[in-house]
Amino acid sequence: MTNPKKLKYSIDSVKDIFSKLSLTSDFKITFSEFPNNKNDASYTLKEHLTDAGVLGLDGDGQFVEKLELLCFSANLPGSSFDVYTPIGDRQGEMEIFPTRRDFGRQLTLSFYVDKNHKVIRFFEEWMNYISPVVGSRGKVDSSKSGQNLKKNPTSTNNVVRMRYPKSYRTNLLVTKFEKDVGVSSSPYLTYEIMDAFPISISPMRVSYGNSDKLTMSVTMAYQRYITRNKA
Q1: Could you say which of 86, 184, 186, 196 would form a disulfide bridge with 172 (CB–CB 3.0 to 4.6 Å)?
Q2: Fold of the CATH domain 23-39+53-77+107-130+168-230
Q3: Cβ–Cβ contacts within 10 Å for residue 158, how many?
């Protein structure tokens, strides 16, 4: 039998514990390399995003690095067990056993939108690659100007096809760190989210009146995650 341990502490004895709590505002996301293997697809996701003008150099740096910095909200993923509850196997006792671990499988990221709207186009083109529109003139490709109008993307006779999953999935890192990272030996925790891809873009409200920063939220699906710790 376990008994309660010490119940009362002085402020001085716990002050150091509560002065070193983690803060919600210190984090960063990182995209892994986008699929570019010709064995998985003759026309790769990296090629598509590059042709669409949303991957590669962007003025004074790489656009993906800017995209990562523009992410102002994310959630550290969680997991749970599906459980099996046999009743009466042991003289009427009800027991609970874990069966399968559920890794949540969805992650929501929120971004500030840049003035060139490339944040929006990046995820739109990623989803365009996953399910390209196909018509009588072939697959509708994209350029810096958007989807190719010469391929008649608005035709009501067009169909949508899905690409093979391996061709559009990539890993995504969510790293939780503290303000003193890089200055001292501060630890940080990284979630490596495996086989991620966007499944929805939330509507973005625009209106007359007082202006505010335009933001967008994207829901990413994934298979599972692992955690890595830098102590």
Answers
A1: 196
A2: Pnp Oxidase; Chain A (2.30.110)
A3: 17
